[in-house]
Design a protein that fits this description.
The chain is an alpha/beta fold. It has eight helices and eight strands, in the order H-E-E-E-H-E-H-E-H-E-H-E-H-E-H-H. The chain has a single domain, classed as Rossmann fold, CATH 3.40.50.
Length: 197
């Protein structure tokens, strides 16, 4: 019996599917190990715009669905932290509103702040997910177990990330990755149980 030889187009399609399946499997492994999600603020928790009133007071817009996702994650034991190189009262207020205890805002190397979180809480690199959008986030993204970028991130950040969210920063991107982590760790049912009665 004769078999037709696979055409080059068929082979590339198969290779692409195999590559895609490997990437998904690798992402699933990374998601399952996450115990701590650290978030950049400007461009991730917000759309990156910084607003000032005529009196010079700063304000930022945060997404309600991101906030609810953070609340659900905290409820089932995922550690959440805000890591920003730009100190802001708006960020401090948002963290307090959500019950986020890790809030580091210093104009220093972000990896130093992440090392501080690791020492205080006993996390290994592969147990940390970090979500960023700018070049200053690269040192952290290169070292953590799960590097996440938003679509509005600069190209170098998107190339470094293990995953680029579908939703933009300040528009549900944080909620998206939280759902993925909780589902991979089989915590989603617990996180949403109170809404399913």
């Amino acid at each position: 019996m004769l078999f037709a030889r696979p055409r080059p187009a068929d082979l590339s399609c198969r290779r692409l599917l195999l590559h895609s399946a490997r990437m998904k499997s690798n992402l699933d492994r990374r998601l399952k190990r996450v115990r701590c999600l650290l978030l950049d603020v400007d461009g991730v928790l917000t759309d990156g715009k910084i607003h000032f009133t005529s009196q010079g007071d700063e304000f930022k817009s945060f997404d309600a669905q991101d906030g609810h996702g953070i609340a659900m994650a905290l409820r089932v034991g995922l550690t959440i932290g805000f890591i920003s190189g730009r100190p802001s009262k708006a960020t401090t207020h948002r963290a307090a509103d959500l019950g986020v205890k890790i809030v580091l805002q210093k104009p220093i190397n972000k990896m130093e702040m992440v090392e501080q979180v690791k020492r205080r809480h006993g996390f290994a690199n592969d147990e940390i997910a970090f979500m960023g959008d700018e070049l200053v986030d690269l040192p952290v993204l290169r070292r953590v177990g799960l590097a996440v970028a938003v679509p509005n991130a600069v190209t170098a950040v998107k190339r470094t990330a293990h995953y680029v969210t579908r939703r933009s920063g300040g528009d549900g991107a944080v909620r998206e990755i939280i759902e993925m982590i909780l589902k991979a760790r089989r915590l989603w049912s617990r996180a949403t149980a109170k809404y399913m009665v």
